[in-house]
Amino acid sequence: MKQNLSPWIDQLNRTRDVHLLSDNRETDVAIIGAGIAGISTAYFALTTTPYKVFLIEGDKVAHGATGHNAGQIVSYFERQISDLVKEFGITQTSEAQAAVDSAWDLLEEIYKKVKLRTPFAQFTGYAGCQDLAEVIVHLENNMYARETHINMEPLMVAEESGITEQIPKTYDGLYSIVPQKDILSLLETEDPRYIAALSSRKGVMNSALFCEELLDYLFREYADRFTLFEESHVSDVVLSDSHAKLKIRDKEITAKKVVLCTNGFEKFTITNTNGADINTQFHHLVNGSVGYMAAYLEDHTKSPTAVSYLPAAQKTGDPVMDAIPYFYLTRRTFESEANQLHSLICVGGPEVRMDDTDNYTHEHPYPEEAQSVIDQFLHKTYKHAPTGEITYKYKWHGLMGYTPNGVRCIGPEPINPVLLYNLGCNGIGILPSIYGGKKISQFLNNEQLAPSIFDPKDSRLQ
Ligand SMILES: Cc1cc2nc3c(=O)[nH]c(=O)nc-3n(C[C@H](O)[C@H](O)[C@H](O)COP(=O)(O)OP(=O)(O)OC[C@H]3O[C@@H](n4cnc5c(N)ncnc54)[C@H](O)[C@@H]3O)c2cc1C
C-alpha cells in the first residue's frame, strides 16, 4: 500500500490535461490554491460577479488538505464557543457561528444548482464525553447558545454516571438524563468510559471529488471567463495600488485582485509597493500539524454516521494515547471495485506537530505507531470493528494549519485590499472554506460587511 493514499484522491476521475501558463496574462481576479477554498471562491466569484477569474494551483486540484482530510462535514470551531466569546464577545461569536452554519445551505444550494452527484450524506452525529469537566465545557457552550441564535447541541448524560448531582444548577434545562445504554448505542461503543453524548448536524462528503465535479461545471458554464492553471507554483506576489503581479516560473499574471486560498503554506514572497510591508511572516505564524488517518471496508449494512470520541480530562498515563486530542470516526457508503457498495470506516486522531512545514511532502512517511494507535482505538471503542487484524484499504496523512487564534481568515488585507484571504487554518475547514468563498464574492462586489471574527488583522496595529 502507498504511504499516503486517501480514499478521496483514489475516487477522482481525472480526465483533463494539465494547463500551464505559457504567456504573460491579465485577469480581474486571480485565486491562488485550488483546494475547496479556491474552488468555492471561484464558484461564487463566477456566479455572482461579472469578473474574469484565474485559478492557479501549484500542484493538482484538491491534492492538498482537501484531498487528505477526514471528509466529515461539521460546523463547529476548533475553539470552544465559550472561549471565542471571551476574545470576541457574544455578538460577533454568535454571528460567526451562524455564518459557518449558513454554509450548510450554501452547500445544498450548490448541489441543487450544479446537480452534483458526489455522494453527500447528512445526519445527526455524536460526540462522546468521558467526564464531568468535558460535560461542563459543552454545557457552557449551550448556555451561550441559549442566549443567542446559535443552535444548541442536545447533551445527554447517563443516569448511572454519578455526575448528574455534581452538575451546577445554572445548567438546568441544558441537558437530559438518559440510561447509559442509550448513549453507548448512539456512540456505537460498549466502552463504559463514555458517560455523555452531544448530538449535532453532521455529514460526510469527499471534498476532493466535490471540487473535481464543481470544476467541470465551471468549465462548462463559464468557459469565456474562467481559466485553471495547474502545476503552476506562484513564487512571488507583488502588490501595487491597483493590481497584483504573480510570478509563475518565467511568466507573469497581472490581476486586479488576488485571493490567497493556500491554506497558509504558500511558500512565496509578498512585496507591497503601496504602503507598509505586509506581514510576510504570516505563513510562518501558522502552526503545522500532520494528521494521520486510516480506513477499511465493511459490509454495506449500516447507515452513515460520524462520531467523535473526546478524551477524558483525567489522563490515562499512556503518553501516546494522552497526546491524542480526540478520535473521529465516520462511516459512509463507498463505491469500491466492480461498482460494489461497501461502508468505508475512516478513523483519524493521531497528530504530530511539525515546526518546519516546508519539510512536509505527500511522501512524508506514515509511522507504524499511528496505525497501531488507530488499531487500539478501533478494537477498544468501535463495537463493529473486526475482532482480529484490521486490513486497511487506505492510510493517509495531511497537513493542518492553525492560525495563532485558531480562526479562519477571510477578507481583504487591511494594508492593501488588492490582496484578499480565504484561508486557514484549522482541521475543520470544509464548511468554513465554502462560507469564505461566498464572503469573498461579497467583497469583490464591494458590499459593506459588518466586522467579524474572520477579518484579517492589521499587522500595523500589533
Ligand atoms: C488530516 C486532516 C483532516 C481533516 N479533517 C477535516 C474534516 O473532517 N472536516 C473538515 O471540515 N475539515 C477537515 N480538515 C480541514 C480541511 O481539509 C481543510 O480546512 C480544507 O480542505 C482546506 O482547504 P483549502 O482549499 O484551504 O486548502 P488545501 O486543500 O490545502 O488547498 C490549498 C492549495 O493551495 C495550493 N498552493 C499553496 N501555495 C501555493 C502557491 N504558492 N502557488 C500555487 N498554489 C499554491 C496547494 O498546492 C493546495 O492545493 C482536515 C485537514 C486535515 C489535514
Description:
With 462 residues, this protein is α/β, with parallel strands linked by helices. It has two domains: 18-69 and 207-285 and 404-461, FAD/NAD(P)-binding domain, CATH 3.50.50; 122-202 and 286-402, D-Amino Acid Oxidase, subunit A, domain 2 (D-Amino Acid Oxidase, Chain A, domain 2, 2-Layer Sandwich). The protein has nine helices and 19 strands. The chain has helices at residues 7-10, 36-48, 81-114, 132-147, 180-187, 207-221, 319-322, 368-381, 430-444, and strands at residues 25-32, 53-56, 72-73, 120-129, 155-158, 176-178, 196-205, 226-229, 234-239, 244-248, 251-260, 269-272, 287-298, 305-309, 327-335, 341-354, 394-402, 409-412, 419-423. Strands 3, 4, 5, 6, 7, 13, 14, 15, 16 and 17 form a ten-stranded mixed sheet that branches. Strands 1, 2, 8, 9, 10, 11, 12, 18 and 19 form a nine-stranded mixed sheet that branches. Helix 2 runs parallel beside helix 9. The radius of gyration is 22 Å and the shape is globular. It starts with 6 loop residues before the first helix and ends in an 18-residue tail after the last helix. It binds flavin-adenine dinucleotide.
